[in-house]
Amino acid sequence: MTVLDDDILKMMTGWRHDLHAHPETAFTEIRTGDLVAAQLAADGYAVHRGLGQTGVVGTLSTGSGPVIGLRADMDALFIEEKGDLPYASRIAGKMHACGHDGHTVMLLGAARQLARRRNFQGTIHVIFQPAEENEGGGRRMIEDGLFDLFPCSEIFGLHNWPALPLGSFAINGSTMMAAFDTFEITVTGRGCHGAMPETGIDPIVVAAQIVLGLQTVVSRRVSPLEKAVLSVTQIHGGDTWNVIPDSVVLRGTVRCMSPEVQRDIEGLLRGLSQSIAAAHGAVADVVYEHRYPATINASASADKAARAAEEVVGRSSVTTDCPPSMASEDFGYMLQRLPGAYIFMGVGDDGHRAALHNPIYDFNDGALATGAAFWVRLVERVLPG
């Protein structure tokens, strides 16, 4: 079912390639915001800038009726792009490796189509969010008054998913993505000559024991009926071959689905780290940060999103019981404040198999029309004219 004008689709492809060539990371999405704001203003939207530092919100009303929010993220990642795309990143060390260029453009194209058709009754706020990658731009927009200035009855989000085939969608009526926490453990011992380890307290050995001990948290201390991941992703310590350092730093991430498991894992991580260090005469200082909450759909909102997707790609191409992902999204903050839903859209085909956050990833332009059409149908379904 095509609901997108041909000229809009052509513009979307151009916008997407331009944004891909000029990636902007967390809270620096100025050029991206300029493009978004200019196009929204040209289409008759009231435009507000500055929430979450670089966020953009466009508002369009067609009279009295419900008010809903549609959200897209704008930021890129600190990854050096590989490959030979004609529109490859021109910014060293930065690229759109998660498809936020596509997310921005699909919502922007839908906004233009909705402004032309005006086949809905109510108000839409199109929310272009900065800093989804690690920095919590969604939380920052909320703290800056997003839902006070732009109250909504429901909020919806969409993310491209290379593991799903192009022309498909997947959603469920509960938890879509995991909570995201980070930790840093500084193990302090007593440095010494590498040839005389008995004269010091080796923090490298202690850190190794902590890494192994932490592997028992999920495997032996969390119920197998729960979903959780604890990964140590960094080890830093020492700077030469013959000196045992004073300290070692471990960093990593925790993903889980429930606040109770999140609380338990934090306590276990602290207790194990400190006890193992103490047993060796060292000290472990633990900094544990709760980053993003789980992304939890409201069942009624998820059903609306699924029905809209079915109208675009057909019922057989929409999965309504997809398993949750252990990846995370700061859209979870918005779903803590409002009922709403987050949906995955397939972008995988023979030319687009690279995973998200991969240096050769490129958003599939073949999905632009589908994503924009989804937004249009969702608005017209939730706010019937």
Automatic annotation (TrEMBL):
Keyword Manganese part of the UniProt annotation: yes
Residues holding Mn(2+): C98, H100, E133, H159, H357
Example of a GO MF term: metal ion binding
InterPro entries: Amidohydrolase, Bact_exopeptidase_dim_dom, Peptidase_M20, Peptidase_M20_dimer
Superkingdom of origin organism: Bacteria
Cofactor: Mn(2+)
Residues covered by the Peptidase M20 dimerisation domain: 182-264
Keywords: Hydrolase, Manganese, Metal-binding
Cofactor note: The Mn(2+) ion enhances activity.
SUPFAM superfamilies for this protein: Bacterial exopeptidase dimerisation domain (SSF55031), Zn-dependent exopeptidases (SSF53187)
Transmembrane segments: none
Pfam name, any one: M20_dimer
Family to which this protein belongs: Belongs to the peptidase M20 family.
Family annotation (PANTHER family): METALLOPEPTIDASE, PUTATIVE (AFU_ORTHOLOGUE AFUA_6G09600)-RELATED, PEPTIDASE M20 FAMILY MEMBER
Protein name as annotated: Amidohydrolase
UniProt source species: Telmatospirillum siberiense
